[in-house]
Amino acid sequence: MMSKVLDRILEEDVKEEINHGVRVSNLAYHVAKTLGLYENICRELAVAGMLHDIGKLKVAGYLYGRMEDTLDVEEMRYVRMHSRLGYEILMREDYSDFIIESVLYHHENFDGSGYPENLQAEDIPIGARILRVCDVYAALTSDRPYRKAFDEKTAVELMIDEVKNFDMRVFLAFQKTIHEVELAHSWGMPDIEVRIEEETT
Ligand SMILES: [Fe+2]
What we know:
The protein contains 10 helices and no strands. By secondary structure, it is an all-alpha fold. Bound molecules: fe (ii) ion (FE2). Fe (ii) ion binds at residues 52-53, 82-83, 106-107. Fe (ii) ion (FE2) is lined by residues 52-53, 82-83, 106-107.
């Protein structure tokens, strides 16, 4: 039987994942708009933003309930599989190539230091390059069990330190996007409640 403490941890983690997905989705949509991409592509990217970490469902044991952000080498190797696992899940569900590739490559870095394929620069699909920026920003500006959220200015400064990871054109569009006032409310943390029920057999 699952303990109350574990229930609590799982609820918090699932809630955090969903909130993170919503934030990345909204932000990615607006960054894509700023870049002048077609509306249908912006919408597809919103879907990819919501689903980008779906592969984490398969590596949940390593991720949920953690009180620190350090992983040992073996754990890291396992967790790094989540983008490919997400890709495999979505392949089975008939999502578009654009969505599937955005998810598969959302941890590729512009300088080739990312995963799973160490793609570089324009070899990384544009959807994945946008998700990369939005994912990092949404993570930095959210509370974690082991640290408080960074404010927006600090988060951007931290990202500038790691700007080699990002497509500069996307990064500039992202900065422009987060400074647009009317957006400030639309992608704040939604108040999503999650309840995990024990399965009765
Ligand atoms: Fe991810």
